Amino acid sequence: MRAATTFQVLKNKAKKLKLEAYVLYFAYKDSRVSWYAKLFAILVVAYAFSPIDFIPDFIPILGYLDDIILVPLGIWVALKLIPNEVIHDCREKAQALLAKGKPKNWIMGAIFIIIWILLGVWVSWYLYQWLLA
């Protein structure tokens, strides 16, 4: 019985993190947010929703550290940079969006994958030039 309640607690925390990621997304679009808070917020949102991690999940223990530590820490810092009234307004928007169901944006998903592929090609080319030149 205890494992079921622990799982439920983790599931609730994951839902809250997802909500907060959408709050940051809406805050990024708000004109009351400073440019540096917008930049940090969009970087956190991009990393949170990106299908590719810095540390791949198949690596034992380390693979989930970014999901467990980096994403929540980034969300927390980004929320500290944004004014409370903006967070309140954006939280209402995020709750309304999630109440309709999980949004899907295949175009943004494709853009993320293309960016990661281009970044991989660029890093590979740079390493090739550096190591073999």
TrEMBL record:
Protein name as catalogued: DUF1232 domain-containing protein
Pfam families, per the entry: DUF1232
A GO CC term attached to the entry: endomembrane system
Keywords, alphabetical: Membrane, Transmembrane, Transmembrane helix
Ranges where the DUF1232 domain occurs: 37-73
Membrane topology: Multi-pass membrane protein
Protein's organism: Brevibacillus panacihumi
Subcellular location: Endomembrane system
TM regions (residue ranges): 35-52, 106-128
Keyword Transmembrane helix: yes
